[in-house]
Amino acid sequence: MFIFKALIILNLGWIVYQDLKSRAVYWFLIPSLIVQLGYLHYTNVLQTNFLSAIIINIGIIFAIISILYLYAILKIKKPFFKEVFGLGDMLFFLALAIAFPTITFIVVFVFSLFFSLFLWLTFKNKSKYHTLPLAGYMALFLILILIGNWLTNAANLYLI
């Protein structure tokens, strides 16, 4: 299991590196992350809880992206996937939705967004890009959460 967890951290680290470097992530990283995090979630909960959590979490993601889409089209009048929100970010949201039970997902998702906002406000003047590397910052947050959880065993992320 140690090697499996190390592969998850390596995958997340690669996402961080790619997104910070070029604001793009290799296409195969997100599907492999979805499989890895999904398997970790599946092995820690009952099958019915796994399926219901994924359905609820994807519904939450769909609602959030729909609201963002409407806001982008109606209020700021910019093309959604070209200027407002990246496809890699949406796929990373999906990876998080599959990774955790609903309550844990909501907590991790919200705090990863706050973490991303904090990092963006801190480092935006030092970047050559004017876009937020959301998937990269969220992946960095997830690395910190997973390593902290695995090392301390303070709370089981799958029982919250």
Descriptive notes:
The chain is an all-alpha fold and 160 residues long. The chain has one domain (2-152). It is 78% helix and 0% strand. The chain has 7 helices and no strands. It has helices spanning 2-22, 29-44, 47-74, 80-84, 87-99, 102-123, 134-152. The model has no long low-confidence stretch (mean pLDDT 91).
Question: What are the SSEs and their pairings?
Answer:
Blueprint lengths: L1 H21 L6 H16 L2 H28 L5 H5 L2 H13 L2 H22 L10 H19 L8
Helix pairs in contact: 1-2, 1-7, 2-5, 3-5, 5-6, 5-7, 6-7
- Taking all Cα atoms into account, the compactness measure Rg is 16 Å
Q: SSE order, as H and E?
A: HHHHHHH
Query: How many domains, as an integer?
Result: 1
Secondary structure category: mainly alpha
Helix content: over 70%
Approximate strand percentage: under 5%
Query: Averaged pLDDT, please?
Result: 91
Distance between the termini: 21 Å
How many β strands by DSSP? 0
Q: What would the principal axes of the Cα set say about the shape?
A: globular
Contiguous helical run count: 7
